[in-house]
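## retry 2 of 3
previous attempt timed out at serialization; input unchanged, resubmitting
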Amino acid sequence: MKKLLYILFTILLSTNIFANTEVEESIVKIYTVSKTPNYMTPWNSTIRRSHGSGSIINGKGKRILTNAHIVANQTFIEVKRYGSSKRYEAKVDYISHQADLAILTVLDESFFKGAKSLTFGELPTIRQEVTVYGFPMGGDSLSASTGIVSRIEHNMYAHSKEIFLSIQIDAAVNPGNSGGPAISDGKIVGVVMQQISRSQNLGYLVPAEIVKHFLADIKDGKYDGFPHLGVSSQKLENEALRSVNEMDKDTTGVLIIDVAEKSPAYDKIKPGDVLLSVDNNKIENDGTVEFRHHQFTSYKYYIDKKQLGEKISMRVLRNGVKKELSIKLNNIANDNLLVDTVIYDKMPRYYIYGGYVFSPLSRNLLQNSRSTLLSLREAASKWATEDKDDVVLLLKVLASDISRGDHDFSLWIIDRVNSKKFKNFKEFVKILKEFEGKYLVLENEDGVKVAICREKALKIENTILKRYSIENNERF
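## retry succeeded, writing output
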């Protein structure tokens, strides 16, 4: 009997070791050299080196799955398999900065020789055990740490600042772990994304179902993104507010405050509507839906599940009458927003005219400058319109004798040029380039003005560029 138990124990142990070995053979260390732009001096950038983790998955040929933030702004990427010391050059095949995911391919196909490909599991349950694999800082060896799923809900992704479903785990997650897989029952249930600052042994995963959405999206050879409805809503937990909106005790939902002009929902959902359900899933008064028994998250969950171009059904309460709507989800967030979400893999746009530096407002700039100006924060919260889809700033003034008195202007929103409004940064620069009068007069919505003498500005331009070691006076 003892001999039989020993044999069974040995078989189970060897099977588990084999499974773990298969996982380990699929783990990759990623080395990235990236060029990080400076949005306050947009002609400058810095080079930095970093590393992260990834895993080999199936696809059209072998592919490496990792985080977008591991390879954002990259100029050169190398990868190394677990158990090997050789590095191979890699490139980004597809990237979703929205969902912080990327697919890499390796130029030398021999990299994948003998490699095992990992497959994907389903969304884990609360208290389900997961093991996180990767190469955290502090050593070159593969690390594996085990913990449990403690929470599943929508959270802001640090990389994109957009909100998607995420998994919180109580396993140790450290810099360098990012991009590595979280494994349960031999399958990927999530990708390590970020850790919680000021907390020990807490981290977030991009769930496998978000990864699957990304992989389904790129099947046609291009990345489209996650759809964005383009509405602002308010919770309806207050009884008085519910009564004002003609809701009985059995009716739940959220109040629509505003709809983006460019949103496909613009002519269908109206401010003042109560949004009751999405794809026949009831919305609670706190803005959540039950996606599992006794588990709730943002009603955005059922919008995120759709691919761009798919339709979604919605039920609204309008003036006490329930209406059924069907909306084709054609837009991503950047289509609806006046100020785009965080930008990567591009250098910032700018234009210099006689030492006056102009740039469109971006969320990168808000982060880079750590600006607390309410006017900029307010502008970044608005929807784009047919007449305006950029916020143009006088970013700074490079000191010279023609700009005396204007040196303190910084991060200043421009609304008009010589009393003329403009749609975007491109149109603004076109106005400046084509201007042939004596004075350019810039004005904000409060009537504050900056005047530039065209003749003097053009005459001093090359001198200023040389003085501040700026090679080009524009980038679009």
